[in-house]
Design brief:
With about 425 residues, the chain is mainly β. The chain contains four helices and 31 strands.
């Protein structure tokens, strides 16, 4: 059976970039010529009517809209109906033909959340989807803060989360090569004069004051272990406020000033280190004389260190959907595993990059369980796929316009970052 993505690849090579492709469950129509394929989405009852329309957005880049089922359901049946309907959008990027690149972007800074439509528009992208899990809640002081890997242009701005559910999507924007897996990291600050080091707990993440010391204004008297965090200008100009110690460094890593509390406004070329608990004394000692360097290493799930080149981008997902073509999602009974709007990303066996959204929590598109999402990925020919942030975050934008129907918000939720396809090669410093 010809795969969905392979069918699209053959079609793209057979038609001009502006050609409109129309697909049906029984075949692929290209300029009046049908290419046989028995592919249908594995959602709901067999035999449901399925319609598709595909449009070439750029050379080698195709957006396919799939609607399965014809009748809207009722609110009470969204989670259980076998009749749908489902609305699925599939963005495929053929690296053999595409002249642009896929990258992650987060807007003005990490602390703020931005709508996907704005991130696509500001970056001048042809299309994009939401990506990482992030702080999200309305009460969060830094709503856009990534909750897991944040790798942008080879710079690690948020560390992989130390949880087994995180699975990361990494793309080299220069080669269009994609890898999916659970990354790990190590990080430390090193004094270049003394050689002494201090392990980093986080990057650009508010440190926690240890239990029992939350009311201790002088954290140097706390005997419990706290956190040590490196903040970069990309987090935002203001670092988190609170009890602890903060050391501000210039562009060379040399101490500008030290503070007995946390919270400063950083100049464009400055970074800072915050510490809580007994780590405050270690930080003070480390930064007393000499200049500091940050040393971070990122490893794939096989333990191989990744080269943090300028073309490398990575975002955080939760649970791998397919691995080497096989469905690998675990069973689960929480609402996370139930039908929700979904965003997935991955690659096919021939290297085509696929981003897909499934609208949900609506009578016109019921969404997908995690298991259903994995089956969709497999049917699309995505041999390695990861579940990205979903729910109200699931958003697809084409040239800055909303291209799907997000749940709970007519304009789409503001998110931490996005995966965007930009026409043209990756430029140095971009």
């Amino acid at each position: 059976m010809t795969s969905f993505v392979n069918s699209l690849r053959h079609a793209r090579r057979a038609v001009a970039a502006a050609t409109l492709l129309t697909l049906s469950a029984s075949g692929l129509i290209v300029g009046g010529r049908a290419e046989a394929t028995s592919f249908t989405l594995p959602l709901g009852s067999p035999g449901l009517v399925e319609t598709r329309t595909s449009q070439v957005l750029a050379t080698g880049v195709t957006l396919t809209r799939i609607v399965r089922g014809t009748r809207p359901t009722t609110v009470g049946q969204i989670g259980t109906t076998s009749q749908g309907p489902w609305r699925v959008n599939v963005l495929s990027i053929d690296p053999a033909l595409a002249r642009g690149h896929l990258r992650a972007t987060y807007g003005p800074d990490l602390a703020r959340a931005e709508k996907v439509t704005d991130l696509v528009r500001i970056s001048g992208a042809a299309a994009g989807t939401n990506a990482s899990y992030f702080a999200y809640t309305a009460s969060a002081l830094y709503p856009g803060e990534p909750r897991g890997l944040g790798l942008y242009g080879g710079e690690l701005l948020s560390e992989p989360a130390a949880v087994s559910t995180e699975v990361d999507f990494v793309v080299d924007a220069k080669t269009s090569q994609v890898s999916i897996g659970r990354l790990t990291w190590t990080g430390q600050m090193r004094n270049r004069s003394t050689g002494n080091t201090l392990r980093l707990k986080y990057i650009n993440h508010p440190p926690v004051v240890p239990s029992g010391c939350t009311k201790a204004a002088d954290q140097t008297k706390c005997t419990k272990s706290g956190d040590t965090v490196h903040f970069t200008p990309q987090f935002g100009r203001s670092t988190p406020r609170g009890y602890g110690v903060e050391v501000v460094l210039d562009s060379r890593g040399c101490r500008v000033r030290s503070k007995a509390t946390r919270g400063v406004v950083l100049a464009a070329n400055q970074t800072s280190i915050q510490a809580t608990g007994r780590e405050t004394n270690s930080l003070i000692k480390l930064a007393k004389v000499g200049c500091l360097s940050r040393e971070v290493k990122l490893y794939d799930e096989g333990g191989k260190q990744l080269r943090l080149s300028s073309g490398l981008f990575g975002v955080a997902g939760r649970y791998q959907l397919t691995k080497a073509g096989k469905i690998v999602v675990p069973a689960g009974s929480s609402t996370f595993f139930a039908r929700n709007p979904r965003t997935l990303a991955g690659r096919t066996a021939d290297g085509t990059i696929v981003l897909a959204t499934i609208d949900g929590r609506q009578t016109t598109s019921v969404g997908a369980t995690l298991a259903e999402t994995a089956r969709v990925a497999q049917a699309l020919g995505v041999v390695d796929a990861v579940n990205l942030d979903g729910g109200g975050s699931t958003t697809l934008s084409v040239r800055g316009a909303l291209a799907n129907q997000p749940s709970g918000s007519s304009g789409g939720r503001a998110v931490g970052d996005a995966l965007v396809y930009i026409e043209g090669p990756l430029r140095k410093g971009s």
